[in-house]
Amino acid sequence: FSTVSTMTDGDYDYLIKLLALGDSGVGKTTFLYRYTDNKFNPRFITTVGIDFREKRVVYSTSGPNGTTGKTFKVHLQLWDTAGQERFRSLTTAFFRDAMGFLLMFDLTSQQSFLNVRNWMSQLQANAYCENPDIVLVGNKSDLSDQREVQEKQAKELAEKYGIPYFETSAATGSEVDKAVITLLDLVMKRMEQCVEKTQQESPNGGGSGKLEPLPAAERKCAC
Ligand SMILES: Nc1nc2c(ncn2[C@@H]2O[C@H](COP(=O)(O)OP(=O)(O)OP(=O)(O)O)[C@@H](O)[C@H]2O)c(=O)[nH]1
Ligand SMILES: [Mg+2]
């Protein structure tokens, strides 16, 4: 596994844009606030349009035999979209520029889980490619007595889509970091593949062996 630790200042090697989507009230804003500030906000203030949070992390690839490979400074931009229908055309317009997606539902709402399929088609229609990096997140795992979605159901859906699944709680912080890091890992691996491919195609261009962030158009190659 790759490792990620927090960093506060200095330059960065990569700007990675992740986007949270899902029904209103599933906990997107609260989840991102837990991830960036390690705090919980119990009040529901619905997001109007779009918002974003940021965090710097150090990302290390794993080398052979568990050694640390390359290390990169990553500036994470976390886009927080409104789940409400009335903002749909605005929020889906942001899908195109995100590199990875946290597709969230509420474990205490069967309806929010049923809507995951709709969000998935919105993603396929509007993301940078038909097969973007996505992590499925069932949030509010702390509310076990109100649970309406069984882990098995959600796991089956995630398997069908071929994406990882996590049950998180923004209230306790359980699995929150893991879900984000897994998504970051997928995005970084896709970018690395893409760079390797580019270097193979033009050996003169990649002489330094250092990974460079790629413009949006070139990222498409690993889809
Ligand atoms: N118990 C519990 N409550 C949570 C959790 N995550 C979010 N909430 C609460 O659920 C409510 C809705 O959370 P938000 O983060 O505002 O929901 P949202 O998905 O951003 O909603 P929109 O902005 O309308 O799309 C708030 O009252 C949160 O405190 C959780 O993991 N556990
Ligand atoms: Mg919100």
TrEMBL record:
<keyword id="KW-0967">Endosome</keyword>
<dbReference type="InterPro" id="IPR027417">
    <property type="entry name" value="P-loop_NTPase"/>
</dbReference>
<dbReference type="GO" id="GO:0042470">
    <property type="term" value="C:melanosome"/>
</dbReference>
<dbReference type="GO" id="GO:0030141">
    <property type="term" value="C:secretory granule"/>
</dbReference>
<keyword id="KW-0636">Prenylation</keyword>
<keyword id="KW-0547">Nucleotide-binding</keyword>
<dbReference type="InterPro" id="IPR005225">
    <property type="entry name" value="Small_GTP-bd"/>
</dbReference>
<keyword id="KW-0378">Hydrolase</keyword>
<dbReference type="Pfam" id="PF00071">
    <property type="entry name" value="Ras"/>
</dbReference>
<keyword id="KW-0449">Lipoprotein</keyword>
<dbReference type="GO" id="GO:0005525">
    <property type="term" value="F:GTP binding"/>
</dbReference>
<dbReference type="GO" id="GO:0005770">
    <property type="term" value="C:late endosome"/>
</dbReference>
<dbReference type="InterPro" id="IPR001806">
    <property type="entry name" value="Small_GTPase"/>
</dbReference>
<keyword id="KW-0488">Methylation</keyword>
<dbReference type="InterPro" id="IPR041837">
    <property type="entry name" value="Rab27a/b"/>
</dbReference>
<dbReference type="GO" id="GO:0006887">
    <property type="term" value="P:exocytosis"/>
</dbReference>
<comment type="similarity">
    <text>Belongs to the small GTPase superfamily. Rab family.</text>
</comment>
<dbReference type="GO" id="GO:0070382">
    <property type="term" value="C:exocytic vesicle"/>
</dbReference>
<dbReference type="GO" id="GO:0045921">
    <property type="term" value="P:positive regulation of exocytosis"/>
</dbReference>
<feature type="region of interest" description="Disordered">
    <location>
        <begin position="197"/>
        <end position="223"/>
    </location>
</feature>
<keyword id="KW-0342">GTP-binding</keyword>
<keyword id="KW-0007">Acetylation</keyword>
<keyword id="KW-0472">Membrane</keyword>
<dbReference type="GO" id="GO:0005794">
    <property type="term" value="C:Golgi apparatus"/>
</dbReference>
<dbReference type="InterPro" id="IPR050305">
    <property type="entry name" value="Small_GTPase_Rab"/>
</dbReference>
<protein>
    <recommendedName>
        <fullName>small monomeric GTPase</fullName>
        <ecNumber>3.6.5.2</ecNumber>
    </recommendedName>
</protein>
<dbReference type="GO" id="GO:0003925">
    <property type="term" value="F:G protein activity"/>
</dbReference>
<dbReference type="GO" id="GO:0003924">
    <property type="term" value="F:GTPase activity"/>
</dbReference>
<dbReference type="GO" id="GO:0016324">
    <property type="term" value="C:apical plasma membrane"/>
</dbReference>
<keyword id="KW-1015">Disulfide bond</keyword>
